[in-house]
């Protein structure tokens, strides 16, 4: 099973400095390996259309849909309270905040742990775990560091602590140059 690693971009069209597909394309050019399509507030048809557009600019098999409906794809990333999808998917991730689900993840292939650092996107959301505490919480579960990772230095701290990758939203969505920011975070 291939789990997300490297730079994983979470989308947010409201934060994006340009058209979402253009921002994602630039981030992939800069080194983003995976994309998690959020946009859960869109009507179903619009979300499916956006999924199709984003899939065109993401490496094959590297687009994950937030929520239990994979929209025709093969990977989902679930919020803490989301049910497991009713259809078979090849990859399931789950968000975790301050602790893993009771008894650890069961059907999940990986978790995101957040917030690692204080975050501009969700001020007051925390307290920040820090990379070392996140690593202890994750144990043997593959994990992505999420929250406040806005520099190569912070990305390196997470990698040194054992994160499989880093998941970022604001640093890419708000960047004047998403390609350059992705390159900095992957370096």
TrEMBL record:
Residues 7-172 form the Thiamine phosphate synthase/TenI domain. InterPro entries: Aldolase_TIM (IPR013785), ThiamineP_synth_sf (IPR036206), ThiamineP_synth_TenI (IPR022998). Pathway: Cofactor biosynthesis; thiamine diphosphate biosynthesis. The keyword Cytoplasm does not apply. Keywords: Thiamine biosynthesis. Condenses 4-methyl-5-(beta-hydroxyethyl)thiazole monophosphate (THZ-P) and 2-methyl-4-amino-5-hydroxymethyl pyrimidine pyrophosphate (HMP-PP) to form thiamine monophosphate (TMP). This is Thiamine phosphate synthase. It comes from Paractinoplanes bogorensis. The lineage of its organism: Bacteria, Bacillati, Actinomycetota, Actinomycetes, Micromonosporales.
């Amino acid at each position: 099973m291939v789990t997300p690693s490297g730079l994983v971009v979470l989308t947010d069209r409201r934060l994006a400095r340009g058209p979402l597909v253009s921002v994602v394309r630039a981030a992939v050019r800069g080194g983003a390996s995976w994309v998690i399509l959020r946009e859960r507030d869109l009507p179903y048809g619009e979300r499916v259309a956006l999924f199709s557009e984003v899939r065109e600019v993401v490496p094959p098999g590297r687009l994950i849909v937030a929520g239990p409906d994979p929209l025709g794809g093969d990977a989902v990333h679930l919020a803490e309270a989301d049910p497991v999808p009713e259809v078979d998917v090849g990859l399931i991730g789950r968000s975790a905040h301050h602790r893993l689900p009771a008894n650890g993840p069961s059907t999940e292939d990986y978790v995101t742990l957040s917030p690692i650092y204080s975050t501009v996107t969700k001020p007051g959301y925390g307290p920040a775990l820090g990379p070392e505490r996140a690593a202890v919480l994750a144990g043997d579960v593959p994990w992505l560091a999420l929250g406040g990772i806005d520099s190569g230095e912070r990305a390196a701290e997470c990698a040194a602590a054992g994160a499989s990758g880093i998941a970022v939203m604001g640093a890419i969505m708000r960047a004047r140059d998403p390609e350059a920011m992705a390159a900095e975070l992957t370096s």
